[in-house]
Specification:
56% helix, five-stranded antiparallel sheet, disordered C terminus, alpha/beta, single chain, 3 domains, six-stranded parallel sheet, 16 helices, Rossmann fold, Beta Polymerase, domain 2
Length: 443
């Protein structure tokens, strides 16, 4: 079995496609369940954020797993199988390891270096563990990825040069309205992103109001931060009062329509207003940005503002850490590949020695002391003969050819098949891979 990732992100697809494949918690669980039951997949974890929807699997077969993933994602979202293939990318084996570590370090995010992805990965792993969808392979991979991400933020200055989507939106707000301490901010949604927005805004002294479909959740968050909470049926009034509206609700349809924003502008007598839409699918109708005096920043616009951060020296230091960690992880996995084969070879040698010594002792009249000496001598000979080749095969496996060496040992000594695919892996667009496969081809 092999590590495989298939996904769609801000780097491979336009915003409408990202919105179409975005998954709420319920649909994410449904997709994981469907894939965990698929014949070509042994373990699975699904991650869905405002930047990406990705499926991580321990695959039984490569092409079969790709086909299972595209079928299941198409069945769970609003994207057809054919439409999905135009934007889907695939990472396999070592390239999959590199991608997960890069992601955990915040280096593949729209906001390069942001730390929020660590919490999202940790939450996705916890859910998959609780549902029994991950096993040894993905557990080890993601635990190590979380450690790599933490190391990057601890050992580099990446936090000092990176701005999150939230911080970028607030920076635009302060440029427009002046100090946030003199600004009214309305936050729509009290989930993880909403809580982050509220915390960041209140720390900067803004007057914050929180509106959420579940009033109790908004009230708890507001109480903790010294903000105000208002019910959803007062959202029109809240829109009119706010200088900055930041929304991340997880709703499937816009929660701020053109008509609502226009009414708010009338009530504000034309005073400027900023909408920051952090949701996927989008919360604020695209047309809102066409209103006089209104600016709308969605994920695409925020991504453009953040584009310059990827060349900072701290980012290069982070990439160096990721590269080193990937190399160590891949080397360890390669050793694991040949481990069972080496163990099988030693077991086979031990069995042959035992059988031959038994036969020898039956045919000779040696006393107990002589038998023991013969036993020790034969075992020393076999150990010396096996030591160098088994040590070398482990060393050579670290170069990425573990499967080849394990297969060669198995073939030479007629050992049981106990190796898994592996190697340097690949990264590809799904559109470049074969289309739907016959049962005979799904290997």
């Amino acid at each position: 079995m092999s590590l495989l990732i298939a996904g769609v992100s801000h780097q491979s697809a336009p915003l409408p496609v990202l919105e179409a494949v975005a998954l709420d918690a319920e649909r994410r669980l449904l997709l994981e369940k469907a894939l965990h039951a698929a014949a070509n997949i042994d373990e699975v974890l699904v991650l869905s954020t405002c930047n990406r929807t990705e499926v991580y699997v321990e695959a039984v077969t490569f092409h079969g797993a790709i086909s299972d993933i595209t079928d299941a994602v198409a069945a769970t979202t609003a994207v057809t199988r054919e439409g999905l293939r135009d934007h889907l990318y695939v990472h396999y084996e070592d390239r999959a390891v590199e991608h997960v570590f890069t992601l955990a370090a915040g280096l593949d995010s729209m906001a390069v270096g942001e730390a929020q992805i660590l919490g999202q990965l940790r939450a996705a792993l916890g859910d998959a563990q609780n549902n029994g969808h991950v096993g040894p392979a993905l557990n080890v991979l993601f635990q190590q990825a979380l450690r790599v991400g933490k190391r990057v933020h601890t050992e580099t200055e990446i936090d000092a040069v990176s701005h999150s989507l939230v911080e970028t939106g607030l920076l635009v707000g302060s440029d427009t309205f002046g100090p946030l301490s003199e600004t009214r901010i309305l936050i729509l949604g009290a989930g993880g992103m909403g809580a982050l927005v509220a915390t960041t805004a209140t720390r900067q002294g803004a007057e914050v109001t929180i509106v959420n479909r579940t009033e109790e959740r908004a009230a708890r968050l507001a109480s903790r931060l010294g903000a105000a909470a208002r019910p959803m049926d007062e959202v029109a009034k809240c829109l009119a009062e706010a200088d900055i509206v930041i929304s991340s609700t997880g709703a499937l349809a816009p929660v701020v329509t053109l008509a609502q924003a226009a009414d708010a502008q009338i009530a504000r007598a034309g005073r400027p207003q900023l909408y920051v839409d952090l949701a996927l699918p989008h919360d604020v109708a695209y047309e809102v940005g066409s209103l006089t005096g209104v600016q709308r920043l969605g994920l695409a616009e925020l991504g453009t503002l953040l584009a310059g951060a990827s060349t900072a020296p701290a980012v290069e230091a982070a990439r160096s850490i990721v590269s080193s960690e990937v190399s160590e992880f891949v080397t360890a996995r390669a050793g694991d590949v040949v481990g069972p084969t080496v163990a099988a070879l030693r077991e086979q040698a031990a069995a042959v020695v035992s059988a031959e010594l038994t036969r020898l002792h039956r045919r000779t009249d040696l006393d107990e002391s002589d038998r023991a000496e013969v036993d020790r001598a034969v075992h020393r000979i076999v150990e010396k003969l096996l030591h160098t080749p088994t040590r070398r095969v482990r060393e050579l496996a670290g170069g990425g050819a573990g499967v080849s060496f394990a297969a060669a040992l198995s073939e030479l000594f007629d050992l049981p098949a106990s190796v898994r695919p592996g190697g340097p892996g690949l990264t590809a667009a799904a559109a470049d891979l074969p289309d739907r496969l016959t049962p005979e081809e799904r290997t």
